[in-house]
Design goal:
6% helix; 9-stranded antiparallel sheet
Length: 704
């Protein structure tokens, strides 16, 4: 029974339709006079012991209904939408105390002799306790619309997720216009250089022209779909560029960007990168290197490890086995995990050491995790991103599990896993980018490479990207590898880019302790933060960064009488607070970028890439605390991408950090094409040989 929802309020979503005949109730109750969406040949109906909406046309179309009902508070309100159109706004027509669904029933009303039946179809119904906010409501609407392929008809024109689902890195095209009907002639231009949009071919490997052209289908028109051609006479280990050109009676067009490939065995194999100790691949479940022949929805009791470790994933309990999804990632398969389903791996390495793990998946929850009973780690898959990773210089790879957190059994992953790789060492930045590029292009999630690297790196002293989703510490991604300790702060929240950090109360902060960052007379602090700034937990200042002494490197001073918040610097014994004249109050609600540049005698401030003023003060004291000054100086509700540089950045570098609202991300080296791994054998020198000759004298010296 859902009667208990009256004390919390509820949010309900449904995808359903009449199919013709007996068009009465569809989603209704056995125990209450309650119905949702459909009634008496109408599709705009909601009755909760009182009418919230009693209107609507009659049809047999699929509809998405969304309802929000406040908790019992004397005269609670309700809101109702059909296919993105609001039908009821703040309605008080329901019963004031008995407005819950009771015991749900589909297709008819009451028990015994069922009343008010309908011929109908119900695809999905979701009920949440409490009232979802707009952002989360739109996410659920998008999930339903794209899952049931109804986005073009049940999402409003201005819906933020109408053209693409937010739960995968793949952008889906829902409308292709094929006008004219004249099939194109397609050619692929290729060579050692990018010849751009130039039809000239010279064959001599010189700029600026293409070297060769491959004519598809012998010059005959081709239909819609992928095209390919074989190339020969390539030079081993050389990179070649290519670009497609199509032409019909409507005109000629080039593909938007060039691509490239390397003529070599550039695959990732179990021997390619040192330290690969675990590898699961949904395109090769049995690990034999050949295409699988697995029936759709087949439960899997094993998933073979393709590394040299032989640590296969298993599930001996039939009811807990994930299933094989044939086309989970475009035309590629995935392993689908539902509630209660997981796989066990066991111990890969019990001792602590380096770890670097990568997961390609779509859904949410723990993709993979490890725990030795006292410590461990997880790779958390988040909605909206299909490429996830975890790295640590000193931890175990023990009691490994796929699909939940082995420490607790919680964190159930719901969705599809494509590939998992674990290395028993901390990969270099170049190696990690190669693995990311390989995964992104293989699984067509290239969009998720954006944000995996940043461009403003010189003199970086501290970098918290807050990509962790659990734990009591935040890791520094700068070369210094510092650690910050959380005090009443939340990591499992959305940020400006992926995950962020939230400071919910007056004593929320990040304590650097012995990892305090020296500042001196040249420094830059950069962060993204949310507005409006909260009154809760604020006495006189909203402090972003502060020293153990009274100095506040960056703060908004709160004016108790006017409510204004002025940006500036507080320096003990130096005139206390000196502001810039810039106020946070006019900033619209949402994410904003803030940069403070300390330079000898002053601190210059930039907001959203633009200069907003300067303070005549600068603090050279070390930064000990972030997000607050221990208590009652809460800076903002959320932060993301917090950095400290040991130099005074120029304005063009500040603009690069802001990136027109996109940050300084987008410099991933494999955005345009996959990496080429080097699989050539390497000669390794013997370890502690009894005798060792190099034969490299090259002067005729006799060797004894």
């Amino acid at each position: 029974s859902y009667d208990s929802l009256t004390s919390s309020g509820y949010t309900i979503f449904s995808i359903a339709r009449y199919t013709g005949g007996n068009n009465r109730r569809v989603i209704t109750s056995r125990t209450r006079n309650w119905l949702f969406g459909f009634h008496n040949n109408g599709v705009n109906r909601w009755f909760a012991e009182g009418w919230i909406s009693n209107s609507g046309p009659a049809d047999t179309n699929w509809h998405m209904h969304v309802g929000i009902h406040e908790k019992s508070n004397g005269n609670p309100k309700a809101w109702f939408w059909r296919d993105g159109q609001q039908i009821a706004n703040s309605s008080t027509g329901s019963n004031n105390t008995v407005f819950g669904p009771g015991q749900l029933q589909f297709g008819g009303y009451r028990t015994g002799i069922t009343q008010e039946t309908s011929k109908c179809e119900v695809a999905e119904v979701i009920i949440y306790e409490g009232n979802l906010d707009l952002e989360n409501r739109q996410l659920v609407e998008a999930y339903l619309a794209h899952k049931w392929d109804l986005a073009s008809v049940i999402l409003a024109t201005d819906h933020p997720h109408k053209t693409a689902t937010p739960f995968t890195g793949i952008t889906r095209v829902y409308e292709v216009k094929d006008e004219g009907g004249d099939d194109p002639v397609v050619r692929i231009f290729w060579g050692e250089h990018d010849g751009k949009e130039d039809l000239a071919v010279d064959g001599n490997s010189s700029l600026p022209n293409w070297d060769h052209v491959a004519v598809i289908n012998n010059g005959q028109p081709v239909g819609l779909g992928p095209v390919s051609t074989e190339l020969s006479n390539l030079e081993t280990d050389k990179r070649y560029f290519f670009r497609a050109h199509a032409e019909n009676i409507g005109g000629a067009f080039w593909s938007p960007v060039y691509k490239f490939f390397t003529a070599s065995d550039s695959r990732l194999t179990k021997h390619t990168l040192d330290g690969l100790v675990f590898w699961l691949d949904a395109t090769d479940v049995d690990g034999d290197g050949q295409p699988d022949s697995i029936p759709p929805d087949q439960p899997l009791d094993y998933w073979i490890d393709k590394s040299n470790s032989g640590k296969d994933a298993n599930q001996s309990v039939s009811g807990f086995r994930p299933t094989y999804a044939v086309s989970a990632f475009g035309d590629r398969p995935g392993i689908r995990f539902a509630s209660g389903q997981s796989m066990l791996v066991g111990t890969i390495r019990a001792d602590a050491g380096g770890v670097h793990a990568f997961v390609v998946a779509k859904g949410s929850g723990v993709g993979i995790g490890a725990n030795d009973g006292s410590s461990g780690w997880t790779v958390e898959v988040k909605q909206g991103s299909s490429l996830s990773s975890y790295k640590n210089e000193y931890t175990n790879i023990d009691r490994v599990a796929i699909g939940n957190d082995p420490a607790t059994g919680y964190g159930q992953f719901l969705g599809d896993i494509a590939e998992v790789l674990i290395f028993d060492r901390y990969l270099s930045e170049t190696e990690a980018q190669m693995v990311e590029g390989y995964l992104a292009h293989k699984w067509e999630v290239v969009e998720d490479l954006i944000g995996n690297s940043f461009t403003v790196k010189e003199n970086l002293q501290l970098y918290f990207n807050f990509e962790e989703t659990e734990g009591s510490d935040v890791a520094d991604s700068s070369p210094n590898r510092k650690t910050g300790t959380l005090n009443n702060a939340e990591l499992k929240v959305s940020g400006k880019f992926g995950s962020g950090i939230q400071f919910p109360d007056a004593n929320s902060y990040i304590d650097l302790a012995e990892n305090a960052v020296p500042m001196g007379s040249h420094w830059t602090i950069s962060t993204w933060f949310t507005t409006p700034l909260k009154d809760t937990g604020v006495a006189f200042y909203h402090t972003l960064a502060a020293a153990n002494a009274d100095d506040r490197h960056v703060a908004f001073q709160k004016n108790e009488s006017s409510g204004d918040r002025e940006l500036g610097v507080y320096k003990e014994g130096g005139g206390n607070f000196q502001g810039t004249g810039f106020l946070s109050n006019p900033l619209p609600n949402g994410w904003h970028h803030l940069v403070a540049v300390g330079d000898v005698t002053k601190t210059t401030f930039y907001v959203n890439g633009g200069y907003v003023g300067e303070s005549s003060l600068i603090s050279g004291m070390p930064v000990d605390v972030i997000g607050n000054r221990w208590i009652n100086e809460l800076f903002a509700d959320k932060l993301d991408e917090f950095r400290i540089y040991s130099s005074s950045l120029a304005q063009f570098e500040v603009s690069e950090l802001y990136g027109d609202g996109d940050g300084d991300f987008g410099g991933h080296p494999y955005q345009d094409g996959p990496p080429s791994f080097d699989n050539r054998p390497k000669i390794q020198l013997p370890i502690m040989p009894l005798a060792h000759w190099t034969f490299n004298e090259n002067n005729g010296t006799a060797l004894g």
